[in-house]
Amino acid sequence: MHCPFCPHEETQVIDSRVSEDGSAVRRRRRCEKCDKRFTTYERIELSMPALVKKDGSRVEYSRDKILSSMRLALRKRPVSSEALDVAIASLEERVTSLGEKEIPTSRIGEMVMRELKRLDKVAYIRFASVYRSFEDIESFETALKELK
What we know:
Largest sheet: 3 strands, antiparallel
Strand order of the largest sheet: 1-2-3
Number of domains: 2
Number of helices: 5
Radius of gyration: 19 Å
Structural class: alpha+beta
């Protein structure tokens, strides 16, 4: 494992733990050259279906894109990284259990909204406002009524 702080290739594993949901192994590492510490995560690599966009084009599933979208919606909200990891693991489990080779991005968006709704109502509204392209107050009111 390369050190993210210097180009040294030798790092020592200080601690290994299984994540709360059991979907990853968290490893605490120390660089043998610069002595800085960092964390890595080891996850099972799943064969995810291709995503079909609205225009018909196909893209690879990207955990990082979903993570960054959810983080943006959760910005400055009281949700832990662990809770976010559990939500993404749950979403990925649902996607793989569908057993499909292709899934519309709209379906993934709905799954993300479901997870955000469970995690934090404000983050859900933030994401929904962009995802559903709210253009007026009535759109927000409708989404808020869904929450109640």
